[in-house]
Amino acid sequence: MAFLLRALCAAVALSPCASAIAAPLIASEQRIGAIVDAEQERTVAMLEKWVNQNSGTMNFAGVKAVGDMLRVELEPLGFKVDWIDISTANRAGHIVARHKGNGRGKRLLLIGHLDTVFEPDSPFQRWSREGNLGLGPGAGDDKGGMAVIVAAVRAMKAAGTLKNADMTVFMSGDEEDAGPLEIARRDLIAAGKWADVALDFEALAQVDGRDMGSIARRSSDEWTLVVAARSGHSSGIFSPSAGSGAIYELARIIDTFRRDLTEDKLTFNVGLIGGGTSAELTGDNLRIAATGKTNVIAGTAIARGDMRGISPEQIARAQAKMRAIVAQPLIGATAEIKFAPDGYPPMAPTEGSRALLNRLNQVNRDMNLPEMGELDPVRRGAADISFVAKDVDGLVGLGPAGSGSHSPREKVDIGSIYLQAKRAAILMSRLAKERRPR
Ligand SMILES: [Zn+2]
């Protein structure tokens, strides 16, 4: 009966099932839960080992070592595991692990990453426990996500639901600091074109202690604004001949951005600014060397910032507005804005992704768990799933809950690893049974 109800929900549009009642888990799904629980200690020991292996993005040997640790988990389950070298992009590489199923069910792409923001010179290198919390570099982001994947597919294997599943696990080695995208994201994008469903095993979002579903991520782009103006004696400022100088022009532009670029889900930050008689960005784009005197009209000014939006259309609209604002300079000034080519694209919410969240909520109901509401994407940054979002529907945040990621207080909620593994394994088992569209 449970199976019939679920088959019906999968066959018809999902909305009638949004309020569907819970159905008991079928035998293989119950077995998944039992196996994840039986293997708790194994899973946390595996995570501890991974965390203690440094894999800062630029520690290529460390990233590869974590990839090898994942390989030894996945190969015995029937995955064909390959290392994709991307040294031409000055990054380590990626792990791609493929499981061949019966070729009929939905093709699943599981996304996460091997690297962390903590390079070998960071003081934060080791795993430790505080009750049900695990502390360590990458404990949640994203070695915790890798642990969810391994716990989930091991349970699927033992419960017999992996056998027919066509699945690719793609773990980037440079999620935290991507190499040139043309090389560094080429293989992930290809995997996205192959897949019917993309699942991102980054941190589970929680709002007021409630687990949230997530089907969108905003983009992340960088821009640089450079203003040049006539320099001269400050006594003449604002006169037609002297003009306003570069700093006033820069201030006009960024304040007009703030007042005119008001759209839901769009944000833009100015993160660095400098100006004076001379101003120059240093090679790493993190510093501006500026000189100036109080009685000299500034001849040059520079600002750098980011921009985050929810769809390619919104980004294009915002960039056009920014260019138009820049193109109306104050007297005596000229300005130019450049958008960096290697931004992260947005993952816009789609009806297909929303239907996937409905499927996940059916799993929640059947597991007697509360339903997960849809997270506002303003609360999330960009990530690797964004690169496949234009080709495939997806769910974000199937990794564990935690806090403090990218900081030396990074913690993972260990119990959430098991819960997320069960949810993901049951969802994936159901999706693998659904006929893929032709
Ligand atoms: Zn991450």
Written account of the structure:
The protein is α+β, with helices and mostly antiparallel strands and 438 residues long. The strands form six sheets. The protein has a six-stranded mixed beta sheet with strand order 1-2-6-3-7-19, with helices on both faces. The radius of gyration is 25 Å and the shape is elongated. It is built from eleven helices and 21 strands. The two termini are 28 Å apart. Bound molecules: zinc ion.
Task: Describe the structure concisely for a colleague.
The protein is 34% helix and 23% strand.
> What is the terminal separation in angstroms?
28 Å
Q: Unreliable runs, pLDDT <50, ≥5 residues?
A: 11-16
Question: What is the CATH architecture term of the largest domain?
Answer: 3-Layer(aba) Sandwich
Q: Catalogue the ligands.
A: zinc ion
For the report, how would you describe the main beta sheet? 6 strands, mixed
The CATH superfamily of the largest domain is identified as Zn peptidases
Order the strands across the largest sheet as they lie in space. 1-2-6-3-7-19
What is the helix content?
25-40%
Give the number of domains: 2
Structural category is alpha+beta
What share of residues are in beta strands? Answer: 15-25%
At the first level of CATH, the class of the largest domain is Alpha Beta
